Sequence to fold (115 residues):
Amino acid sequence: MFLMENLKLDIFEKLFDILNERKSSSPESSYTAKLMHGGTKKICGKIIEEAAEVCEAALLEDKEHLKYEICDLLFHTFVMASYKNIELEEIRQELQRRFGVSGLVEKAGRSKNES
Fold:
């Protein structure tokens, strides 16, 4: 039964399950646990680094390299989400809330602190 349930999970659900497990792991046990042990500043540093690498890869016009860097950025962003106790479902709900709303309208509705 566990195997069947596990097969139903999408890759993002599987990733969040592992990230949530790693929050309580020793920093010597995994890269993710080490990042989380380093806290917000350490994770932010990786997100900034990966975002720059996405931009650099996009300029190279190398689709495979760009996909790789996008996945690194998503991974590190999800590490931050897990570290800050944001669940995948919360991210889905926020994206769903924004779906079908013009980006210009959505941005205009934000307070100055959110821009």
